[in-house]
Design goal:
The complex is a heterodimer. Chain A is an all-alpha fold. Chain A folds into 2 domains: about 70 residues, Cytochrome C biogenesis protein (Helicase, Ruva Protein, domain 3), CATH 1.10.8.640; about 35 residues. Helix content of chain A is about 65%, strand content about 0%. Chain A is elongated, with a radius of gyration of 21 Å. Helices cover about 65% and strands about 10% of the residues of chain B. Chain B is built from 18 helices and 10 strands. The longest helix of chain B is centred in the middle third of the chain and has 34 residues. Classes of the chains: A mainly alpha, B alpha+beta. Chains A and B meet through α1, α2 and α5 of A and α13, α14 and α16 of B.
Chain lengths: ~120, ~625
């Protein structure tokens, strides 16, 4: 079971980063600069972005986890700041619909192909 | 003067378009089997007048005629000539005129290039195309007129946003529009085919070249946009899953699906309705994309100055278009003759379509869900790259695998052992060579590396085969190879990118990993339309004992007053060094961001390869026809 969960976690992690600094970078890349047009905090040079950069660096050095930092920020500024959309009641559709559609599409495809193959027999 | 001339010319092209509608409708009832000469003459004048209106606008920009509101708002006398010209389509009204020009161009080309086709089929296509043209012209003239007069005439304009003053961005809209709007012609063809009950083979042959052309331009347009974002926006990325980027990608998925299923329609009878649905959807998606960008309901880096009344027009147009398409589809729905054998290729192409529609759905949900949520509940959420990466990345594995083996397999006689061939073996070895130099990276990323390697080696072997067997579809091999290379380069880029930011003062020296960065000099100068602060940095790679000089800039443009951060990029074959600089207000400290971006050239090159496949596909068609 432990191995299985390890594999599943591995599957969904695109890059594993280590060290405080890369953790900070990763978090900054997932935050929206609220005063800009569709930029991340990491890419923005606005005063707002500079403040958030400092806050995040501080929190990382304090030893807070990613989750805690995201929670802290979304508590203060709302979920709008998180590019990393949290799984909540209001985002179930967003996170699960694609899989449902994929399966549905597959089912339709299967039926179409099967129907046509049967006709030949 | 130019204002009234422009308005007159565009009004004439609207009248010509309406006359074409009438003439084509009238011609339908005549029993001769050739389209009347009159229609050709009118179509020719239509393209002439439409081009003339666009040229008028460009001239107004070149001579800085500020009696046009549009020129006043988007141009300036000190702007270089090249950007005066490209400024003509760097705004909503001007780009709408460009959009109309392309609609007319495609309509005209269709008319003169399909001399031997069924008369009514052609006439209906012209009718649908001119319905689109006249609606957009009405929109232009009533709501978004680039020729509107401004009185009294100001002596100076407001200038174009400096980040848009860029060669890549000058050609990005025309390329993308050739893709977007190019899809209009197969929208019209599909509806015409339904009404006139054209057989599947001639439908396939008629739309195929248009699909290849629009797909190629769409691919190139997306590429140029990404390159622009990479060096101009200064964050070192090239794709952000920004809503506006997404709206160029959504029609691309459908075009890709169509490009594949048209092949089936041409060789085997089948998928007739499906191809028609895809054709209709592609153009619909293009209009949806335009609606999203122009109405301003999305928060994006691309937002033009926007205005809800535009959105309302496009939305009503869209609704009308969708409902009438659905109506026509069900009224004339073809009875599919299903009595034929499903071949291996066909199933795999259907699987391709399944994936493309799925990708489209994900991007569509990701783009629109936050908008709906906000409207319905007032809750604001953001959907960004993490969402798309998480959902889409796992599906790349089967996609890459199917792209490798799909085109080679036979449905019934396929065997599992056939997969374990020399290509797979080679790719596993290559994979391990790369694996040894990777220190981090999740399992999924590694699998994606392996599968893209497999696709690359397999298509390389296939390419070798084409020397022996001329019947193999070379364009497929090149595009699939390009896609494999794209995914491989993006993954390697993801793994090997280095990023580090510092706060520095003039004269500072910073060390990290095996790099030393020296801040040697700071220079200020002013140019015609901006002032600049330029930093001179030396970057020493201690491992390879090389040094390079980079000079990022902070520019303050005067018209309109904007600050831009110009990245300094040193491009080498395998890796880019990317440096940006920004000032921290009220101090002499600068924040610099140093990035190593490996394989960027490979990313651009692979997309070029993908679109090159599209060009080949087109020339193949020309040969056969």
């Amino acid at each position: 079971m432990r191995i299985l969960s390890f594999i599943i976690i591995q599957l969904f992690i695109i890059t594993i980063s280590y060290g405080n600094e890369s953790k900070t970078y990763e978090i900054l890349k997932n935050l929206r600069c609220l005063v800009c047009q569709g930029q991340t905090i990491s890419d923005s040079n606005s005063d707002f972005a500079l403040t958030i950069k400092e806050v995040v660096t501080e929190k990382v050095n304090e030893g807070l986890s990613r989750k805690e930092i995201y929670y802290f920020l979304s508590d203060k500024y709302g979920d709008w700041i998180l590019f990393n959309t949290p799984l909540k009641k209001n985002s179930y559709f967003l996170w699960f619909m694609p899989y449902i559609l994929f399966i549905l599409g597959g089912a339709i495809l299967y039926i179409v192909i099967k129907k046509r193959t049967e006709k030949i027999k | 003067m130019l204002s009234s001339f422009g308005i007159t010319v565009s009004t004439i092209s609207l009248l010509l378009s309406l006359s074409l509608l009438y003439l084509s409708y009238y011609d339908l009832k005549l029993s001769n089997n050739k389209i009347s000469k009159k229609i050709y003459k009118f179509a020719f004048s239509q393209i002439l007048f439409t081009f003339l209106s666009f040229i008028t606008l460009i001239i107004a920009y070149v001579i800085s005629d500020f009696s046009l509101i549009n020129v006043y708002e988007n141009s300036h006398t000190t702007k270089p000539l090249f950007y005066k010209i490209s400024g003509a389509w760097g705004n909503h009204e001007g780009s709408l005129l460009l959009w109309i020009n392309i609609l007319v161009l495609f309509s005209f080309l269709f008319l003169i290039l399909n001399k031997d086709k069924n008369k009514n089929f052609k006439l209906y296509t012209i009718i649908f195309q001119n319905l689109l043209i006249s609606s957009f012209l009405i929109f232009l003239l009533t709501n978004s007129n680039p020729f509107s007069l401004l009185y009294p005439t100001p002596t100076e304009g407001m200038g174009l946003n400096p980040i848009l003053q860029d060669p890549a961005l000058a050609i990005h809209p025309p390329l993308l529009y050739l893709g977007f709007v190019g899809s209009s012609i197969y929208f019209s063809i599909a509806l015409a085919a339904l009404i006139t009950k054209v057989d599947s083979k001639s439908l396939a042959l008629t739309i195929k070249p248009w699909v290849s052309v629009s797909w190629t331009f769409q691919t190139l347009g997306i590429l140029v946009g990404s390159i622009w974002a990479y060096y101009e926006l200064g964050w070192g990325g090239f794709w952000f899953w920004d809503p506006v980027e997404n709206s160029s990608l959504m029609p691309w998925f459908l075009m890709t699906a169509l490009l594949h299923s048209v092949l089936v329609l041409e060789r085997r009878i089948g998928l007739y309705s499906w191809v028609i649905i895809l054709s209709i959807l592609t153009f619909t998606m293009s209009v949806v994309g335009t609606f999203l960008v122009r109405s301003g309901i999305l928060n994006s880096v691309h937002t033009f100055a926007n205005d809800p009344s535009r959105g309302l027009f496009i939305l009503s147009f869209l609704a009308l278009m969708v409902f009438s398409s659905i109506f026509i589809f069900f009224k004339h729905a073809p009875v599919e003759n299903k009595n034929y054998k499903i071949f291996s290729k066909e199933s795999f192409i259907l699987i391709n379509n399944w994936f493309m529609v799925f990708f489209l759905a994900v991007v569509l949900i990701g783009t629109l869900y936050p908008v709906f949520l906000d409207t319905l509940t007032g809750q604001k959420i953001s959907v960004g790259p993490p969402y798309y990466n998480f959902i889409l990345a796992p599906f790349l594995l089967p996609l890459l695998f199917l792209m490798t083996s799909g085109p080679k397999h036979k449905w019934i006689s396929s065997n599992v052992i056939g997969i374990f061939n020399i290509a797979l073996f080679t790719s596993i070895i290559l994979f391990f060579l790369i694996f040894l130099s990777i220190k981090e990276g999740g399992l999924l990323l590694l699998l994606i590396l392996l599968f893209s390697m497999y696709l690359i080696t397999q298509t390389t072997f296939d390419f070798y085969e084409t020397f022996k067997n001329k019947n193999i579809n070379l364009s497929r091999i090149i595009s699939h190879f390009g896609f494999g290379l794209l995914i491989l380069s993006i993954s390697l880029n993801q793994i090997f990118s280095v990023e580090k930011s510092f706060n520095v003062r003039l004269g500072d020296e910073k060390n990290f990993q095996n790099y030393t960065i020296k801040f040697n000099n700071l220079e200020t100068f002013s140019k015609n339309n901006f002032k600049s602060v330029k930093g001179h940095f030396e970057i020493i790679d201690k491992k390879k004992i090389t040094s390079q000089n980079l000079t990022p800039e902070i520019r303050v443009y005067n018209k309109p007053e904007t600050i831009t951060y110009e990245a300094s990029i040193n491009t080498k074959l395998f890796s880019d060094t990317y440096l940006t600089m920004s000032n921290i207000s009220n101090t002499d400290v600068f924040n610099i961001k140093f990035q190593k971006k490996p394989f960027m050239n490979f990313i651009w090159f692979s997309v070029l390869l993908i679109s090159f496949g599209g060009i080949l596909q087109f020339s193949r068609f020309e040969k056969r026809a």
